[in-house]
Specification:
Elements (H helix, E strand, L loop, with lengths): L11 H15 L1 H12 L3 H6 L7 H29 L1 H20 L7 H30 L5 H6 L7 H7 L7 H6 L3 H12 L6 H16 L21 H11 L6 H5 L5 H20 L20 H15 L2 H20 L8 H14 L3 H7 L5 H10 L8 E4 L2 E4 L7
Antiparallel strand pairs: 1-2
Length: about 425
């Protein structure tokens, strides 16, 4: 029996196709900001949108309104992401972005161009907020342990939303989402296709069982989705702590939330992390900006911290000169001890191993960073045994999930 295929692809080629579509979508924020930095003070732009001419406040509003739309998109995924799934959310996000762009480019001087342009930017932001809340989760759930971090980190490239909204049609849904919704046959088909194996292969069935154990241990084994209150629970799965790690990590980078959170709360916790990202972006960008100087063009950089640089760099260079660079060096250095002591390492770990790290830390009363260091790298065959050892999988009893306990029928999940 041949391995299942999507787009005629299986194994590594299929994984690369998933990564390519994910990559094209996530960088669209940087592309938009780069375009705006180049046109916001140009005579042609100011001629059509007269209110932006020599008006740094209005220029800031036009630039920052995009981030406000992104915040709304992230809130949408926080509410409906579990119901829609990863693929449909990405298709929706790409389509909304295309609609927003069309509204922007059809703004005409003879009508009310600035109002239309702002509406278009807000709609484009909604689509991008949906994508940035969904794509890291989709990428993490479809990637192998060995290359997951690299694939999410390279999510950058100059390709358009059309690739995301159309390309995802022929790609598989996240196997973890499918299994969490009770669609077992589809889930194991995707697992087999991503690994280039037969559906009945031992490795396929073992990976399916490992994922099912994780789903049931987190209390997500139903079609109802996750209530927002589940994000604020503790216990062996440490939902609240892991959500806080993901949200705070958005001040430094964008990979961590999709890896650190468990299947039950991954979509909602990642959406909350993205909300914090866009909320801080809007606050940074909505202040009056002087975009008439060359230094201000740093807004084209897509990283989160660049917004702060845009706000303060011209003033700091004028007043403290070389001290500006020393200041930013110290700020970045301050991140190092925080990351080292508070953030467990996830490199080369499967998403299910990360669950075991937090269960080990909770049960043994040690820091989760120490738990990650002490736990050896596990094969699929070892994950089930460790999950039982730390109470994530029961032997015919009950399993602690957050603040609750869940009855287990027959001892073994799946």
């Amino acid at each position: 029996m041949a391995p299942p295929t999507f787009m005629g692809l299986t194994g590594r080629p299929l994984s690369l196709a998933v990564s390519t579509v994910a990559t094209t979508g996530f960088v669209l924020f940087g592309y938009d900001q780069g375009v705006m930095s180049g046109i916001i003070t140009s005579p042609v732009f100011n001629d059509i949108f007269a209110a932006t001419k020599d008006n740094s406040t209005m220029q800031g509003v036009v630039t920052a309104i995009y981030d406000l739309g992104c915040l709304f998109g992230a809130i949408f995924i926080l509410t409906f992401g579990d119901f829609l799934g990863r693929r449909r959310s990405m298709m929706m996000g790409g389509t909304i972005m295309i609609l927003g762009v069309l509204i922007q480019v059809t703004s005409e001087k003879s009508s009310t161009p600035l109002a239309q342009f702002i509406v278009g930017r807000t709609i484009t932001g909604v689509g991008n907020g949906i994508n940035t809340s969904t794509i890291p989760t989709y990428q993490a759930e479809c990637s192998r342990t060995s290359n997951r971090g690299l694939l999410i980190c390279i999510e950058g490239g100059i390709i358009f939303a059309l690739v995301v909204s159309i390309g995802i049609i022929w790609l598989p849904e996240s196997p973890r989402w499918l299994l969490s919704r009770g669609r077992d046959a589809e889930g194991e088909t995707v697992i087999a296709a991503l690994r280039g194996l037969d559906v009945d292969a031992k490795e396929t069935q073992l990976q399916k069982q490992v994922i099912m154990d994780s789903i049931n241990a987190s209390g997500y084994g139903s079609k109802k989705g996750t209530p927002i209150k589940a994000v604020f629970t503790g216990g062996r799965t440490q939902h609240f702590r892991r959500m806080l790690l993901g949200v705070s990590s958005q001040l430094m980078q964008q990979l961590y939330p999709a890896e650190i959170n468990p299947i039950k709360t991954r979509a909602k916790a990642n959406a909350l992390s993205t909300c914090s990202n866009w909320l801080f972006n809007f606050r940074k960008l909505s202040h009056p900006l002087n975009l008439s100087t060359p230094e201000s063009f740093a807004v084209s950089h897509p990283s989160d911290n660049s917004k702060v640089i845009v706000m303060v760099t011209p003033v700091m260079i004028s007043n403290i000169k070389w001290g500006t660079y020393l200041f930013f060096a110290i700020v970045n250095a301050c991140f190092l001890p925080i990351i080292y002591f508070l953030y467990p390492e996830t490199a080369r770990r499967s998403l299910e191993e990360v669950d075991i790290i937090f269960a080990k830390g909770y049960q043994e009363g040690i820091s989760y960073v120490k738990a990650a260091k002490e736990l050896p790298f596990l094969e699929d065959e070892e994950i089930d045994a460790r999950a039982r050892e730390f109470g994530l999988v029961g032997d015919g009893g009950r399993v602690g999930v957050g603040e609750e306990e869940v009855e287990v029928e027959g001892g073994k999940f799946g």
